From TrEMBL:
Protein name: Glucosamine-6-phosphate deaminase
Taxonomic source organism: Streptomyces typhae
GO molecular function list: glucosamine-6-phosphate deaminase activity; identical protein binding
Main function: Catalyzes the reversible isomerization-deamination of glucosamine 6-phosphate (GlcN6P) to form fructose 6-phosphate (Fru6P) and ammonium ion.
HAMAP family recorded: GlcN6P_deamin
CDD domains per record: GlcN6P_deaminase
Domain of life: Bacteria
């Protein structure tokens, strides 16, 4: 696992955006897996700036999502599909046809999960998947003790997660769905490059357990240790519990520039 320590969230966003831009330059129709939430916003802002300034042509790029609420009506402003279209697809100047995600409003939710796994495979697989991490080490909605071989499936949100997400629903927890569709850990591990961004002291314990702890289902993100090309980008606060922080700083500082991420 490659660990890169950056000064702050903006620097992390710029670094990852350049890695995504470099991928699109090499493979114009790359399939980019995106995550929602506030952590990846600096990535999307930096990548959008590169597109607007003509540094990269993303017109053929494709976007896919990591997870989706179950039961929200099509077009609901807080469905993750709507969020990704608003924060990623539209700013990059892409059409909705460039986007793919699971159908959270399907009558057969399990069938929708299986269909999404098949769609990702038929699309040639995800070239780069962005990930965030929870304070308990979850990735996507794969909570602690999720199977490391799990596929895209329906999960029940914890009460705390629903409380945390209520701010997106006018503060009303009753509007927050109880279930989500999430790529499983096994599905996530099939992407060619995994890039996890973590910022803030609140993520420090989870980052340390992910990077330096054992591979264990109690810390789902630790499965990234099994991947041949996984990059963890953290700011100084999120890196504060890493025993090997100085080693990681030295390694990245002396890495040939042409290798990128």
């Amino acid at each position: 696992m490659e660990v890169v320590i950056v000064p702050d969230a903006k620097a992390g966003g710029e670094l990852i955006a350049e890695a995504m831009a470099a991928l699109v330059r090499r493979k114009p129709d790359a399939l980019l897996g995106v995550a929602t939430g506030s952590t990846p916003l600096p990535i999307y802002e930096a990548l959008t700036a590169k597109v607007r300034e003509g540094e990269v042509d993303a017109s053929r790029a494709r976007i896919c999502q990591l997870d989706e609420y179950v039961g929200l009506p099509a077009g609901h402003p807080e469905s993750y599909r709507s969020v990704v279209l608003r924060e990623v697809v539209e700013p990059l100047g892409l059409s909705e046809s460039a986007f793919m995600g699971p159908d959270g409003s399907a009558e057969d939710v399990q069938g929708a999960c299986e269909a999404y796994d098949r769609a990702l495979a038929e699309a040639g697989g995800v070239d780069l998947q962005l990930l965030g991490i929870g304070t308990d080490g979850h990735i996507g909605f794969n909570e602690p003790c999720s199977s490391l071989a799990s596929r895209t499936r329906i999960k029940t949100l914890t009460e705390q997660t629903r409380v945390d997400n209520a701010r997106f629903f006018e503060g009303d927890i009753e509007q927050v769905p109880h279930h989500v569709i999430t790529q499983g850990i096994g599905t996530i591990l099939e992407a060619r490059h995994l890039v996890l961004l973590a910022t803030g002291e609140g993520k420090a314990d989870a980052v340390a357990a992910t990077v330096e702890g054992p591979v264990a289902s109690v810390v789902p993100a630790s499965a990234l240790q099994l991947h041949p090309h996984a990059t963890v980008v953290v700011d100084e606060a999120a890196a504060s519990k890493l025993k090997l922080a100085e080693y990681f700083r030295h390694t990245y500082a002396n890495k040939p520039a042409w290798q990128g991420l």
